[in-house]
Specification:
single chain, Serine Threonine Protein Phosphatase 5, Tetratricopeptide repeat, Immunoglobulin-like, 5-stranded antiparallel beta sheet, 19% helix
């Protein structure tokens, strides 16, 4: 009879595991279940890696028997597997270390012991809490007591090595403490990818969170019951703030979409996608004013059959490609392809960088000299850490270096990217300062890119509209070995355009409203002949009614001083002018006027703030302010 009951329960559960079960169904199933049935439910869910549902059944078991070592072990294991709350996991796991059973029976209600694995999981919890000595003690005890063929022993040995790395790095922290980007970007849910644009003004985030209309509530994954990841974007508002995330329309509630690379003009997005049943790299391009249907990447050597490929990225000049694959076995490795004489090489395993562990989320710096990535090898201080490898003059990648503490943490640190100059970097991290499980963090530092020039351009709309899809800039190097004209399309949302330039070269820019433009505006410039990073800023104005792009005006400001009684103009009056925070004294001319040029960084559409003080002691003190938004007119006048 007992066997019949057990078989019946397992049959039901196996049927559930093969279908999409809902949280409501699980709660209904366990509501009136006996303790014996709850043990079987909990065990089966754990066996299938359905951690959220196992948590529901296990929490009910703890209500029945709060001190039961078996149930406390299950709860602690679930918490540490979900990485939700290591401190809470310690509370449960610490209750059940007294009685260890090598032949632990997960399906038996009468089982009152736990496996030696409890020490491994307790070690992980202490590790995540930065209690390194206790982590080492528990990892070591696990190795001592566990079966010699346990699959966790190799992992425990790696984590012991990581504890030593953590001790070393935490003793000599660097100065670059990461900053959480706050609630406009992060949430109580998971942020899984982060990409910052070269100009540092756009942020692309993959996050699993509820949609505004809650229409994705029925599409949570059955393992952790998390929302599927979607791709969002944000615009930088000030030096310290970002706009709230905006979801792209190509996202699907049923599929995880993780952006790994966004082109410089935001018109091509590469994503990790699981719609084929395994990990493949897909892309979507922006045309006809919308992003098109996702398509599997057709590059040679990528998206191989029955293998996991993800994390595609490429260099800004389009000569280097990187991605992640497990085509060599169970672990994930970095692969690399290079454009040589117009042809792409077959992807090669980066043997100089890859280890016996996993390497993921590659990112190549603006100057193509540094490859950032994450690894959970024995050189990490816990989980995935951020590393960097320098490329020497012979094109060889050097031994990677850990980015150190507190950039790295004892949790998961990955998905690194940075702006062109290397002054602003973002990455994903699981750490105590996180609002949810994983958050986006930022690092600010001095220029780390050298011997490179960055064209940072902007096309402003006179009507403050999005830039037309077919507007572009032609870039030609007049004295380079390759003087082929290159077309740069503007970012539709804000008009940004940019590219990598050679140093000590002359360039010509030609601005096209579209391909039918006649006599387009042109300008030339020369990059500096030094080894420093250089940023070339160019701003032009698009006039929609005329369908032309013109240079920006240089604004001047004329102020007249008039006697309020006689209405006569007053000459030789000293005025203190404070323009957007910068003060200077001027004296009115014989016509009672002063004229000055505005700061060259003040352009069309900017907010102008001028404070005027009559500082001349011959006159009554007068203070007033002028605030306006600059329109397309060359001279501003006030009285």
């Amino acid at each position: 009879m007992k066997n019949i009951i057990l078989t019946s329960l397992l049959t039901v559960l196996i049927g559930i595991c093969n279908a999409q079960i809902t949280e409501a169904e699980v709660k209904s199933m366990i509501k009136n279940a006996s303790e014996k049935e709850l043990v079987i439910h909990s065990s089966q869910f754990l066996q299938e890696n359905f951690y959220h549902f196992a948590d529901l059944a296990t929490s009910r078991l703890l209500e029945i028997s709060p001190e039961n070592p078996n149930y406390n072990y299950r709860k602690g294991f679930i918490l540490i597997s979900k990485e939700d709350n290591p401190k809470e996991a310690i509370k449960y796991l610490s209750k059940c270390t007294k009685k260890i059973q090598k032949n632990f029976d997960a399906y038996s209600k009468s089982e009152d012991a736990v496996p030696a694995d409890v020490f491994f999981h307790l070690g992980r919890a202490y590790h995540l809490e930065e209690k390194i000595d206790l982590a080492v003690e528990n990892y070591s005890k696990f190795i001592e007591l566990s079966h010699p063929k346990s699959e966790l022993i190799a992992d425990a040995k790696i984590r012991l090595a990581q504890c030593e790395v953590a001790r070393k790095l935490m003793k000599s922290p660097n100065k670059n403490a990461p900053k959480n980007l706050g609630q406009n970007i992060n949430s109580t849910f998971s942020e899984n990818r982060a990409i910052i644009s070269l100009d540092g003004k756009k942020l692309f985030v993959s996050s699993g969170r509820p949609w505004s209309n809650n229409s994705n509530d029925n599409s949570k994954d059955v393992f952790f019951y998390n929302y599927k990841n979607d791709v969002y974007s944000s615009t930088k508002l000030t030096d310290v703030s970002w706009s709230t995330l905006l979801k792209y329309p190509f996202n699907s509630a049923e599929i995880n979409e993780d952006a790994s690379f966004v082109s410089n003009d935001e018109r091509l997005i590469f994503l990790n996608n699981e719609s084929s049943g395994k990990g493949d790299i897909f892309s979507t391009n922006f045309s006809n004013n919308q992003f098109q249907t996702l398509k599997s990447l057709g590059f040679s050597g990528i998206n191989t059959t029955n293998r996991w490929e993800s994390d595609y990225t490429e260099s800004i000049d389009g000569t280097l490609r990187f991605f992640v694959s497990d085509k060599m076995g169970k672990k994930r490795d970095l692969y690399f392809s290079e454009l040589v004489n117009g042809n792409w090489s077959e992807p090669q395993n980066l043997t100089q960088i890859n280890t016996e562990s996993d390497e993921v989320s590659p990112f190549i710096s603006f100057d193509n000299k540094r490859l950032f990535f994450s690894s959970n090898s024995k050189e990490s201080m816990g989980g995935f850490d951020l590393f960097v490898s320098e490329r020497n003059e012979n094109g060889e990648w050097q031994t990677p270096k850990n980015l150190g503490f507190p950039i790295n943490s004892v949790g998961e640190d990955y998905s690194f990217s940075q702006n062109a100059s290397g002054t602003h970097s973002v990455f994903i991290s699981t750490r105590k300062e996180s609002m949810g499980k994983q958050d986006v963090f930022e690092i600010t530092e001095s220029n780390s890119v050298v011997n490179s020039a960055f064209l940072n351009g902007k096309i402003l709309s006179q009507k403050n509209k999005e830039i037309p899809e077919n507007t572009y800039v032609s870039v030609k190097c007049l004295n380079c070995a390759d003087n082929t004209e290159k077309q740069l399309f503007a970012r539709v949302t804000d008009g940004y355009f940019g590219m990598k330039l050679e140093k000590c070269k002359e360039y010509e820019l030609t601005y096209f409203y579209d391909s039918s433009t006649k006599n387009p505006y042109r300008e030339k410039f020369t990059t500096k002949c030094d080894n420093a990073f250089e940023e070339i800023n160019k701003t032009v104005l698009l006039i929609e009614d005329s369908k032309v792009i013109v240079p920006l005006n240089k604004y001047s400001f004329t102020l007249s001083v008039i006697d309020k009684i006689s209405s006569s103009r007053l000459s030789n009056v000293d005025l203190l002018i404070k323009e957007n925070g910068v003060s200077k004294t001027y004296t009115t001319n014989s016509n009672g006027e002063i004229t000055f040029n505005l700061n060259e960084n003040i352009v069309f559409g900017d907010d102008l703030n001028v404070e005027v003080s009559v500082s001349d002691q011959k006159y009554e003190k007068v203070n007033f302010s002028i605030a306006k938004k600059l329109a397309y007119e060359q001279n501003l006048r006030e009285t």
